[in-house]
Amino acid sequence: MTKINKQVQLEQQPEGKPTEKDFRIVETEVSSPKDGEFLAKNLFLSLDPYMRGAIAGKHMGHTRLNQGDLIGGRCVSEVIESNNSTYKVGDRIVIESGWQEYVLSSGQKEHGIRIINSSKASLSASLGVLGMPGLTSWAGVECLSKPTLGETFVVTAAAGPVGGTAGQLAKLKGAHVVGVAGSKEKCSIAVNHYGFDACVNYNDPNWLENLSKECPRGIDLYFDNVGGLVLDQISDQLNLYGRIILCGFVSQYNNKEWHGHNLGKYVGKRANLLSVVVYDYYDRFEEFLNVAIPLVESEKLKYKEDKVVGIDLAPKHFSKLMSGENVGKALVEF
Ligand SMILES: NC(=O)c1ccc[n+]([C@@H]2O[C@H](COP(=O)([O-])OP(=O)(O)OC[C@H]3O[C@@H](n4cnc5c(N)ncnc54)[C@H](OP(=O)(O)O)[C@@H]3O)[C@@H](O)[C@H]2O)c1
User: Fold this and answer.
1) pLDDT for 207
2) Given the CA of residue 329, which atom of ligand 1 is nearest to it?
3) Is the same domain home to 185 and 262?
4) 33-46 confidence digits (pLDDT tens)
5) Residue whose CA is closest, atom 29 of ligand 1?
6) 286 in any annotated domain
7) What's the pLDDT tens digit per position in 74-133?
8) Which residue, of 279, 296, 314, is where some domain finishes?
9) 160 and 68 within one domain
10) Are 172 and 185 found together in one domain?
C-alpha cells in the first residue's frame, strides 16, 4: 500500500517572527528504497533557533528557501525498509530529514546520519541534551571555557537545551552557576530541576541588580545564548580577564538590523571572547556521548522538553520557539 508523507514546505519568507501562514502542509507519496537506499519513519523532529536563519539563507551553509521548499531539520527516525547494508530495519537513527513524516536516504554522510546506541535516556534526548544542543554546551564549557572550582558562571536562555546543559556541566566542575531567563517558570526550572545556584528573570525591572547580588564576586564566565542588549548589559558585570562564550544571538534572529555592540568595554576588561560553532565538534560526538550518557542515566544531567504531537503543529510550535515562549527543548512527536 502506498504510504502518504505529510511534509511542511515554505509558503513565504517570514517577516520578523515566523507565523503559521509562512508554512504549508503538503501530502506526497513515499517511494520505495532503491539499491543502497533505506526508508525511515520519523519519530521526533527537532525545532531549533538556527532554522530561522536557515530559512532566510543567513545561517552558515544554508541557501535561502523559496516557496515550496521543504523546511530543513533533524529527526530521530526508525528504519522501516532497507536496501543499505549499514542501516538495518529497526535501527533508530538521527538524520537530517526535514519537516516530514518519512525520509528516503542513500545513507550518505551529508545526511548527517548517526545510529543511536541504546541508553536509558528517552529517544528524543538524542535531539537535545544528547544531541546537537548538548554537544554545543559541552564544546563551550568543557573544550573552550573550562570553568574551575569557585568561578562564577552565568548563562542565558537558562531553561533551554543549550543553556540548561551548559549550566549543569559548569556546576559539575564546581562553578557557582547563575542562570538568566525570561520568566519565573523558566527560572524555577533552572534552579529546581537543573540545580543552578540561582536564576534571574530579565523581565524583572531590577534584574541587573539581582544578577549582581547573585554574583557577589563578579562574573568570570558568561555563556551567551541571546546576544543583543542582554549581552551588552551582562558584560558590564564581567570580571577583568573574564571569558565570554559567544554561542547564539536568538534575540536578533527575527530582526532585519542587528543590535550594535560597543566593543570598548571588552578591551577595558581584557575579555577573552570565545566563539563556539557546533559543527567543528561533530567528529567528537562519541567523546561527548561517553561523558553525557552516564550523566543523563544517573540523573546528574537533566533535561526538559516542550513537545507537541503531529507534524501539522510544527509551524505553530516553531513560531512559539521564535517568540521565546518555549519551555525546554522544542520537539514535534509524530
Ligand atoms: N554556536 C552554535 O553552534 C550553536 C548551536 C546550537 C544552538 N546555538 C544557539 O544557542 C541558543 C540557545 O539555543 P537552544 O536550542 O537552547 O534554544 P532555547 O533555549 O530552547 O530557545 C530559545 C530561547 O532563547 C530566549 N530568547 C531570548 N530572546 C529571544 C527572542 N527575541 N526570540 C526568541 N527567543 C529568545 C528564550 O528564552 P528566555 O525567555 O529565557 O530568554 C527562548 O526560550 C540559540 O541562540 C541558538 O541559536 C548555537
Assistant:
1) 98
2) 20
3) yes
4) 999 999 999 999 99
5) 251
6) no
7) 999 999 999 999 999 999 999 999 999 999 999 886 667 999 987 788 999 999 999 999
8) 279
9) no
10) yes
Do residues 318 and 152 lie in contact, with contact meaning Cβ atoms separated by under 8 Å?
Answer: no
Domain shared by 120 and 192, yes or no: no
Domain ranges, residue 310: 4-127+304-333
Q: What ligand 1 atom has the least distance to the C-alpha of 160? A: 19
Pocket probe for ligand 1: among 127, 169, 188, 226, the residue whose CB has the most ligand atoms within 8 Å is: 226
150 and 232 inside one domain = yes
Question: Is 239 part of any domain?
Answer: yes
Burial of 105 (0-12, 13-18, 19+ CB in 10 A): buried
Query: Is 220 close to ligand 1, i.e. is its CB under 6 Å away?
Result: no
Indicate if ligand 1 lies below 6 Å from the C-beta of 160. Answer: yes
pTM over 0.85, yes/no: yes
Q: Is 137 in the pocket of ligand 1 (CB under 6 A)?
A: no
Q: Are 43 and 333 in contact (CB under 8 A)?
A: yes
Reported confidence tier of residue 224, pLDDT bands at 50, 70, 90: very high
132, 51 Cβ separation under 8 angstroms: no
- Residues 40, 295, 327: CA angle, nearest 5 degrees: 65
User: β-pairing, 238-246 with 219-224?
Assistant: parallel
